[in-house]
Amino acid sequence: MRDLRAKDSGRYNVRGLCVLFGKSKQAYYQYDENLALGKAAREEFVLEYIRGIRVRDPGIGGVKLWHMYQKEFSRDGPIGRDRFCRIIDENRLKVRQCRRKPRTTDSTHGLPTYPNLVKDFIPSAPNQLWVSNITYIQVMDGACGYHFCYLSLILDAYSEEIVGWSVGPTLDTEYPIAALRMALKRIEGKDVSLIHHSDRGCQYASGGYVEMLRRIGIRISMTESGDPKENAQAERINNTMKNELLKGKVFHSLEEVIAATALAADFYNNRLPHMSIGMMTSAEASETSGDRAMRWKCPFLF
User: Angle CA(86)–CA(90)–CA(95) in degrees, nearest 5?
Assistant: First the structure.
């Protein structure tokens, strides 16, 4: 009866089919209800099975889960692969969720840019070279939605200390400028010869940012392309902040991100080991000078 109705519901109505097969309409609908309940029960079982396996193996993917399920329940009429995958999808159980990634660098702005001054430059003391970059951090909106805020960082290339940072809800220039203001407090009243290196994003090429650097006498250096290796040390501190110091944290507001970043920056600067000259004896500084040069030239190896 159900097969015939599925093929042509206009020709085979419920009443006619019931008369033809000698069944009541109540029996027909009861049969459909039982099927629906059975389907729901099987899907709930699969869901609990997936969650149970993930307790022991949190990173296991859908393909392996499907093969395990088929092997263990092949005699019990297991559900099909497509349904199995749909259950994973609908319950947000994918190991890697597809998420959009915001673009933090816009170099098509038409503003003046500057040459790369640090191709072969290896700093020998603090406040000779600062590197800057912007990265994004996810902020949850309720259970499923999310948006991004943006972390601007400035790193001293020699001491590897975070000298300036700022978190903002947008990519507006005011937030990188706030990070720069924080960094400039470190050199107030000091006679320094300093280079500021960044990508060619509109924030760093903006009139306000450039004017602040020039007013202090800081030379401006920018990457020549979008290759991350041209600003590798800044890319590395971004990765350290997001995937080490802030790893696993779920944020629900901009204020939470700011508070967590403040703690992370303090821990990074004051607890983690760095090549800060103030923390080493002259012998230690001499012994590590070769390592420092290698780390600056090939930061992705460290």
Answer: 85
